[in-house]
């Protein structure tokens, strides 16, 4: 029962949003995801944000059907382009038709080996007052996720959409929580293209192992969380 992670699927099966405008690697990317899918029925994957370009749940149905047909359990985390995301009550009602899909939002999940916690996170580079408020809100959501753990002594991995560190910029609200709770692994997405990938933080940073898990960075093949 393995755990995997990959973010930024950017599915658009019922919308006109081809991703190949962002580079040749994105041409037919949903087919690459399906072809490279390593999960078996008992496995779990965290999809850490930017799942679908849909604007509402009805428009997202085709993308959820795509995910449902892939083997394994999928735990979805909100990204900055997930405009279809709504209240948890509405999400769960909608997802009743897709039993392999769950949502990570102010909560946590447990596997045999670890606990799964996370939040969307927020920008590292902005100094606007509104961004500061959103960052604090995301900090609170990450705390609530971590506080919901049933067994705090079990290894805990944090999944974000936004990177907590990017180049010389950092989100200290998020980093503060990671350090406070003794998190040693953090998985994030959001960053696309060779230029962003070159300066992304991958490896050890202030005692935390950072992993970039955006689709194009991983070659559209989910990363196994060992």
Task: Using brief descriptors, characterize the structure shown.
single chain, alpha/beta, Purple Acid Phosphatase, chain A, domain 2, six-stranded mixed sheet, five-stranded mixed sheet, 6 helices
State the fourth-level CATH superfamily: Metallo-dependent phosphatases
**What's the CATH architecture?**
4-Layer Sandwich
| Total domains | 1
Q: What is the element string, with H for helices and E for strands?
A: EHEHEHEEEHEEEHEHEEE
| Unreliable parts | none
Which band does the percent of strand residues land in? 15-25%
Structural class: alpha/beta
Outline the fold blueprint.
Blueprint: E1 3-5, H1 29-35, E2 44-48, H2 57-69, E3 73-77, H3 88-95, E4 101-103, E5 109-110, E6 115-119, H4 129-147, E7 156-160, E8 165-166, E9 169-170, H5 172-180, E10 185-188, H6 194-199, E11 203-205, E12 208-212, E13 223-225
Parallel strand pairs: 1-2, 2-3, 3-4, 6-7, 7-10, 10-12
Antiparallel strand pairs: 1-13, 5-6, 8-9, 11-12
Report what the structure shows.
The chain is α/β, with parallel strands linked by helices and 226 residues long. The chain has one domain: Purple Acid Phosphatase, chain A, domain 2 (4-Layer Sandwich), CATH 3.60.21. The chain is built from 6 helices and 13 strands. A 6-stranded mixed sheet has the order 5-6-7-10-12-11, with helices on one face. A 5-stranded mixed sheet has the order 4-3-2-1-13. Strands 8-9 form a two-stranded antiparallel ribbon. The chain is globular. The mean pLDDT is 95.
């Amino acid at each position: 029962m393995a755990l995997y992670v990959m973010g930024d699927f950017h599915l658009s099966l019922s919308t006109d949003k081809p991703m190949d405008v962002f580079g040749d690697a994105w041409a037919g990317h949903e087919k690459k995801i399906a072809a490279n899918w390593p999960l078996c029925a008992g496995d779990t994957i965290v999809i850490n944000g930017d799942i679908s370009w849909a604007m509402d749940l009805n428009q997202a149905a085709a993308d959820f059907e795509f995910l449902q047909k892939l083997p394994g359990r999928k735990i979805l985390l909100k990204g900055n382009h997930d405009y279809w995301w709504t209240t948890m009550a509405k999400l769960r009602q909608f997802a009743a038709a897709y039993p392999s899909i769950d949502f990570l939002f102010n909560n946590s999940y447990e596997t045999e080996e670890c606990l799964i916690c996370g939040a969307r996170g927020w920008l590292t580079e902005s100094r606007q007052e509104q961004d500061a408020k959103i960052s604090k809100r995301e900090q609170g959501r990450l705390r609530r996720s971590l506080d919901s753990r049933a067994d705090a002594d079990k290894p805990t991995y944090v999944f974000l959409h936004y990177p907590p560190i990017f180049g010389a910029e950092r989100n200290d609200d998020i980093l503060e929580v990671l350090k406070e709770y003794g998190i040693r692994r953090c998985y994030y997405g959001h960053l696309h293209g060779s230029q962003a990938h070159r300066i992304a933080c991958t490896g050890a940073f202030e005692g935390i192992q950072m992993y970039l898990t955006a689709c194009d960075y991983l070659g559209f093949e989910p990363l196994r969380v060992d």
